[in-house]
Amino acid sequence: MKLVFATNNKHKLDEVRSILGDRVEVLSLNDINCHDDIPETAETLQGNALIKARYIYNKYGIDCFADDTGLEVDALNGEPGVYSARYAGEQHCSEDNMNKLLQNLTGKTNRNAQFRTVIALIINGEETLFDGIVKGTISKEKTGDSGFGYDPIFVPEGHTESFAQMDSKQKNKISHRYRAVVKLCDYLKKK
């Protein structure tokens, strides 16, 4: 089975390919010569995932899936949430995003947070949604140099290391994206 993953994010693409293994051939937007900047204008993760998947399916007629992921921090009423990638501005700079988040948490004792991924799959025009959540806390400083995004400040529940201190295999076994992709895989096995 071939599916297009509607993303330009190489880190996400590598992570999903690693999780899916050889069960599904995952094509990138580059593989289908799509160089469009697909807008993410929804107010929810689910909405943005659907926008991206529908864009690819409608324009190219190819079965596909898309995701949107957000970091939701309790003490900030769920921020940055759907705005996680551009929390500190449209430049999508992970360093700036983390610095803003840490600054906004200054003096707050509740550092509970969760990463949530929503995947929208379209096969033969049929839409299906999957989600994955990993709970954890926001550390007071950045640690580790693996991963991407907020990984250096997110410590998953039951662990003492940040996502950025874990190797990709360890992270992929517990991540929000892994949990959503596992649900996607289970669904595809029944197709």
How many beta strands in the DSSP annotation?
Answer: 7
- What string, H for helix and E for strand, traces the elements in order? EHEHEEHEEEHH
Low-confidence stretches: none
Helix content: 25-40%
- Terminal Cα separation, in Å? 10 Å
Share of residues in strands = 15-25%
Major sheet: 7 strands, mixed
Query: What's the rounded overall pLDDT mean?
Result: 93
Q: Please tell me what the overall shape is.
A: globular
Class per helix and strand makeup? alpha/beta
Radius of gyration, Cα only, in angstroms? 16 Å
Structural write-up:
This protein has 191 residues and is of the alpha/beta class. Helix content is 30%, strand content 25%. It has helices at residues 10-20, 45-60, 94-104, 168-172, 176-189; strands spanning 2-5, 25-27, 64-73, 80-81, 112-123, 126-138, 154-156. β5 (112-123) and β6 form a beta hairpin. It is globular.
Structure, briefly:
This protein has helices at 10-20, 45-60, 94-104, 168-172, 176-189; strands at residues 2-5, 25-27, 64-73, 80-81, 112-123, 126-138, 154-156. By secondary structure, the chain is an alpha/beta fold.
Explain the layout of strands and helices.
Blueprint: E1 2-5, H1 10-20, E2 25-27, H2 45-60, E3 64-73, E4 80-81, H3 94-104, E5 112-123, E6 126-138, E7 154-156, H4 168-172, H5 176-189
Parallel strand pairs: 1-2, 1-3
Antiparallel strand pairs: 3-4, 3-5, 5-6, 6-7
Main traits of this protein?
alpha/beta, 191 residues, 7-stranded mixed sheet
